[in-house]
Write a structure and sequence with these properties.
The protein is mainly alpha-helical and about 180 residues long. Helix content is about 40%, strand content about 10%. It has 7 helices and 6 strands; from the N terminus they run H-E-E-H-E-H-H-E-H-H-E-E-H. The strands form 3 sheets. A two-stranded parallel sheet has the order 1-4. The longest helix has 19 residues.
Length: about 180
């Protein structure tokens, strides 16, 4: 969402009130980071890097105040962001597809996108299920990713989230 998108949303929400005079509250579940496409490419795909949401926002026109709008929306009880995760990808699965030069994933990568769930009739493993392990030995790494997400959320909004919904698949009870 852009700065203007949030301005319009907040203005729209202020047009409506419940029986006690309160406006509706919008509750988005938010990821705190994205793959750092530029750095991954610059490092010749040798290692995975992520960039924090504030850095991603700076790359898009009219997105520079996004996190300030989130805080303003919270103060005015219009917008209550909650935690969705760090990135919206299972880093290990996406990274394997990317390193193996999968055509669909690479084309998406060149457009700064994590890509499709299928490409030219080929279905991919659920790499959008960011915190959904296939094997139990993945859980410590996923736990670290979730801790990073919580730390970034607290850094951006000044408090811990009240709720969490994992991206695209159920997270294990250990998380």
């Amino acid at each position: 969402e852009s700065n203007e998108d949030l301005e319009k949303l907040f203005n729209l929400l202020l047009e409506f009130k419940d029986s006690t005079g309160r406006p509706p509250v919008f509750t988005p579940f938010c990821n705190m980071a994205n793959p750092d496409f530029d750095r991954i490419k610059a490092e010749s795909f040798t290692e995975y890097y992520y960039e924090t949401l504030d850095k991603t926002c700076q790359k898009y026109p009219k997105h520079d105040r996004l996190l300030l709008y989130w805080k303003e929306g919270e103060r005015n009880r219009l917008f209550c962001p909650q935690l969705h995760g760090r990135e919206h990808i299972h880093v290990g699965r996406w990274w394997e597809l990317l390193k193996n030069k999968d055509e669909g994933i690479r084309k998406a990568f060149e457009l700064n996108s994590v890509g499709p769930s299928a490409y030219r009739g080929i279905s991919y493993p659920n790499y959008l299920g960011a915190l959904h392990p296939i094997k139990s030995d993945e859980i410590p790494g996923l736990h670290q990713i979730l801790e990073d997400a919580g730390r970034l959320y607290q850094e951006y909004l000044g408090h811990t989230p009240e709720s969490f919904v994992a991206p695209n698949a159920e997270e294990p009870a250990e998380l």
